[in-house]
Amino acid sequence: MTILFILLVLNPQTSFSYTVLAGDESTQEKPYNPQRLRWVAGVHVAGFTGSMLLLNEAWYKDHPRSSFHFHDDLLDWKQMDKGGHIISAYHLSRFSHYSFRWAGLNNRQSAIWGSISGNLFLATIEILDGFSEEWGASWSDFAANITGSASFYFQQVYWQEQKITWKYSFSRSGLEEYRPDLLGSNLPENMLKDYNGITYWLSFNLHSLLNQPESIPPWLNISAGYGAYGMLGSISNPASHNGEPLPHVDRYRSFYLAPDIDYSRIKSHSEVLQTIFTALNFIKFPAPALEYNQVQGFRFHWIFF
Predict the structure, then answer these.
(1) 234 shares its domain with 153
(2) Residues of 65-82 as b/e, b for ≥16 C-beta within 10 angstroms?
(3) Are residues 114 and 101 in the same domain?
(4) Is the same domain home to 7 and 152?
(5) How far apart are CA 97 and CA 40, in angstroms?
(6) Looking at the structure, do residues 181 and 303 belong to the same domain, yes or no?
(7) Cβ–Cβ under 8 Å, residues 2 and 92
(8) pLDDT of 269-280, one tens digit each?
(9) Helix, strand, or coil here: 186?
(10) C-beta separation of 121 from 48 below 8 A
(11) In terms of domains, do 144 and 178 share one?
(12) pTM, rounded to two decimals
């Protein structure tokens, strides 16, 4: 569904508002347009239906079904999967909000419907998990989804902008070769499954949070990151896999502090370029970073992604 929203805003025929993409939507009200709203509703329905069908084929089809049940996975992957739920809900709500703004709903209405649609999409996936014998629905996943959508909603309603943004970065962990079935067998799969290489960030816009001082560029952020490493299993590492011994790897959490860029606040006279900046604003900018982890203590990275 996120991809469909990106296609919506990248389509020059939609005349998607430059000011909305630039984050200045509180001062630019677009007239209500029923035809556009129907178009947006169609994109939501098509994206939701298509995503569920693809997900069923790619994920659930070959796994046994069961009666609906819950499974507590709060301790899995050092909570990295919860970060994935939060960031997904946040950005699904964000893109959905943009589409409703384009249709002429006001800021509050768009924030409400954007947050509902983002949460509904992920809640449906959770329900599918609940009917899977191997997984099960998770209350902590539901809570993470709500957290992501709520963090978008309250900022948008009370600030009319996103001063604090959830972001993602990835670099190869070097552990994927030991468990390709679990951590992915190629780069796209690694970027989704290998939590050892993923970092989630909260990126704070200094210019906006400090009441827009002229000395601070509007696009400059400071970000706090969270990651984990050494995970060859969800809760603990097995001694072997498929008859092959696995290396001993310490499992630990990492915390980061790094500068960042809010791409959506980089001004451009090109609507297409402005749209691309906004669409890509879930990616953390590679930059120097200070890390603290439970094994090595403090470390400095000249470039961390």
Answers:
(1) no
(2) eeeeeeeebeebbbbbbb
(3) yes
(4) yes
(5) 10
(6) yes
(7) yes
(8) 888 888 889 889
(9) coil
(10) yes
(11) no
(12) 0.89
